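ARCHIVE CARD
CATEGORY: sequence design from structure
SOURCE FIELD: tokenized fold
FIELD CONTENT:
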């Protein structure tokens, strides 16, 4: 299993966990007013995290599609090779560090 496939599976697992955390809070569940407000705030944060993880999954799937091409690992801006460490951390990246900034 390559790093991209591993990260895709890992991200899918995180998405499933977040889906559980963003389920509606039942009105009949007695958790107290302050606890209900905390639960609502946590739900909002988890919804944002879920959106970001879904975007990351799309990027990873696109990277997997491109991984077999000669363009993978090459900066789209300057044409230099993207360092392995950067690709390992963010396999979906299309630019080297100097071209991102």
């Amino acid at each position: 299993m390559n790093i991209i496939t591993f990260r895709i599976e890992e991200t899918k697992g995180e998405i499933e966990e977040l889906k559980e955390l963003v389920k509606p809070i039942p009105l009949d569940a007695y958790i107290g007013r302050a606890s209900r407000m905390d639960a609502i705030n946590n739900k909002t944060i988890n919804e944002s995290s879920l959106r970001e993880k879904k975007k990351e999954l799309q990027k990873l799937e696109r990277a997997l599609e491109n991984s077999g091409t000669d363009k993978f690992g090459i900066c789209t801006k300057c044409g230099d090779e993207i360092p392995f460490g950067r690709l390992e951390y963010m396999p979906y990246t299309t630019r080297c560090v100097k071209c991102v900034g």
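CARD ANNOTATION: Residues 1-67 form one domain. The two ends are 32 Å apart (CA to CA).
SHELF: design records, drawer C
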